[in-house]
Amino acid sequence: MNFQVTVLKILVSYPDGFAVMADLKRDMAILATSGRDWTERTKRLAARVPDLDIFSQALVERLNGGWRITENGRTVLDFMEARSSEPQAGRADAPVERLAAVEPAPRLLASTRAARSQRLQRRRAARERARAKAS
What we know:
mainly alpha, 8% strand, 3 strands, elongated
């Protein structure tokens, strides 16, 4: 499993592109144990951008106990995924500047968005309970 591609894929699945470290670790563990399909997919995606470095290329930023995908990160991920449908002849690696022309990622499926929304609501409720308990 390619760690950096997996981080991008996890972060892009969150509505605002931000996930706290506990959520990242949990999602990473789920994907790591999901079988060969995920490992092979991330290897294929990583091969399309061989010099991928999510932090030095500013694809992911560290904020408040978590990580958030940047617009550049979304663009690179879109680029990696879009190339899978192109013919083999056009496989020359493009510089990151050309990646800005890639279409934005499709929105999350309604069911995925609903699940994420429910998880966020549970987190907010837990924070509120913790605040009330601390008072």
